[in-house]
């Protein structure tokens, strides 16, 4: 492509370090779409003839089928996807191919191709997240009143419902979804026509190409257009945050599915056995989701580090942007899909959850609250009295509700039989009806809110 200036070809290592075709061939559709839009605009503005444009468009469509049908030979000598396609176009249509690159550089070409790809990936992520959220909403509806222990420090804290726990994840993945939408909104600008860095002297119509490629508008500054990779970094950032959420969930699934917890049973389709221990059912899918987070975080740090310190505008360093994004996208798509499957399929072990919910003195706060409400104690005094009740129950190795009225009155004489109504886990859960609380009716409100919101978005 630059034979005019060069007397000899590149060294073998140069070719090896320079070529990106092995990974950027993934951009072939976006590259062809970009070229079709560019050439159509060149013809409309009279920069190239309609006749040449027709040849170019036909040639590009032929190349598209060749690639799709596996009949295209990619060459490392031709460096990247842009030059592979352009060289093939020249073979197919002759000199007219040389007119396609008028008023364009690979710098704006790769920027537009990559933006198109990232935008499509964001749309895929949006759909995947919606499916995951829907899976959670369905489980939450089934289990709005299923009691389980709520934890802080992974120590039993207060009873909650499984539906409430599911809806906590809906909030998390809902924020991920809104980050996806924000990212799309911000990146929805076309860099095509920024040319190498300074714009072009040809009378191009950037609004036209932006529109035909489905972007809201063209980017406003040509230097920024070819040197900006924020859209890729935003994808990696939101992917990292989402992966962090998935990983927390994966960790809970791993814990919940142990025989010691026994809160859930994973379906056979999302677990594996052991080649030596016949009793085993391992939560491999959850473990791998947890691990994918490491790759995705690594991809974010890798690209941030590539970009830091790069002077404006384009530098070849930026060619290293693609593998990180492709890798993270593949990992994220898989992780969300696997999680959606696991959540939909898992069997919830209500009895085990309920039993665990009642252990660990989980209703101690309810006892303290009762003393405040019914006996007029200041909360700190009620806390102290309840602490004594827990200590007594502990020495007797029983639950709070198994202490006798006499024993409880020994701690505070104001206690009456009515206390036993609040010491059950169901009563505890029912009482927490503050906005956003774990009471089944509140959980059902959250579910209704999300169903409506999912319909709108
Ligand atoms: N393969 C290159 C990349 O991915 C395309 C842009 C090359 N531009 C250049 N001036 N060498 O970044």
Produce a short descriptive summary.
This protein is mostly helical and 457 residues long. 63% of the residues lie in helices and 5% in strands. A hairpin with a 2-residue loop joins strand 1 (147-152) and strand 2 (155-161).
Q: Strand fraction band?
A: under 5%
Report the total helices: 19
Main sheet: strand order: 1-2
Give average pLDDT, whole number. 95
3D shape: elongated
Strand count, sense and barrel status of the largest sheet are: 2 strands, antiparallel
Q: Ions, cofactors, ligands: which are bound?
A: arginine
How many strand segments?
6
Instruction: Provide the succession of SSEs.
Output: HHHHHHEEHEHEHHEHHEHHHHHHH
Give the helix/strand class. mainly alpha
Outline the low-pLDDT stretches.
none
Rg (C-alpha, Å): 30 Å
What percentage of residues falls in helices of 4 or more residues? 55-70%
Distance between the termini: 47 Å
GO cellular component, one term: cytosol
Pfam families: ASL_C2 (PF14698), Lyase_1 (PF00206)
Family: Belongs to the lyase 1 family. Argininosuccinate lyase subfamily.
EC number: 4.3.2.1
How do the strands and helices of this protein lay out in sequence?
Blueprint: H1 12-18, H2 21-24, H3 28-44, H4 50-68, H5 81-93, H6 106-142, E1 147-152, E2 155-161, H7 162-187, E3 189-190, H8 206-212, E4 217-218, H9 222-227, H10 230-256, E5 264-265, H11 284-307, H12 321-345, E6 347-348, H13 350-358, H14 364-375, H15 379-396, H16 405-411, H17 419-422, H18 425-431, H19 440-456
Parallel strand pairs: 3-4
Antiparallel strand pairs: 1-2, 5-6
Residues 20, 24, 80, 106-107, 110, 314, 316, 318-319 line the site of arginine.
Pfam families: ASL_C2 (PF14698), Lyase_1 (PF00206)
Pathway: Amino-acid biosynthesis; L-arginine biosynthesis; L-arginine from L-ornithine and carbamoyl phosphate: step 3/3
InterPro entries: Arg_succ_lyase_C, Argininosuccinate_lyase, Fumarase/histidase_N, Fumarate_lyase_CS, Fumarate_lyase_fam, Fumarate_lyase_N, L-Aspartase-like
